[in-house]
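Can't attach files on this board, so I'm pasting raw text. These are the components:
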Amino acid sequence: MPARFTLHGIFLSGPVYKVALMLSLAGEPFDYVHVALREGAHKAPAHLAVNRFGQVPALVDNSNGNSLAQSASILEYLADKLGRFGGATLMERIRAREWMFWEFDRLAGPIYRSRAAALGFRQFDPAVLAQYRTEGEAALATLQSMLAGRDWLVGEAVTIADIDLYGVIHYAREGGFDIDALPELAAWEKRFKALPGFAEPEALLPKESRTA
Ligand SMILES: N[C@@H](CCC(=O)N[C@@H](CS)C(=O)NCC(=O)O)C(=O)O
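---
Top answer:
Structure tokens for the assembled complex are below.
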């Protein structure tokens, strides 16, 4: 019998990690389908049937057949279905959503692209790379100031906003960003890593498909 959720992804992907992390923090085992991006499997009909954008992650809810795309939206779906990390009130849910839009607008691009360049996955003109560094540092400085005096991004408890942003921050060091120079952010990262169910990408995302 399949697990309730099947995650389609690739082990190197931050957006895929976010979804696996949410499932792990919620104590929800999941089946995993490795999508061979290098071979173009994400553009093949079988994958387009679960993610019409031809990207990873995709999540299938085997209890009702829903297939879901876009990591932040998947986190919202899981928060709703599992009753975890969604925020205690309407305004907390909205604040969490604001953070997730901000993450995509300001944080993910510069951090993920700087990391991809550092690992040799992508090449950028040096001026473009310098621009990503400036933008990434500005976004990290925003986070540093917004976290002053708070444990979590929204309300008093961890929410999908923290999970979503952690799925980017985790890769910042690989991109050459100095998180330890930002004490509020580094302390938040430490709190996040101490949560029950937290695991590193290597522990959550295998290099091959597997069942729960
Ligand atoms: N906004 C999307 C981004 C997903 C994304 O960029 N996934 C990458 C892997 S990290 C991908 O599938 N790249 C292949 C492509 O876009 O064709 C999300 O958060 O799910």
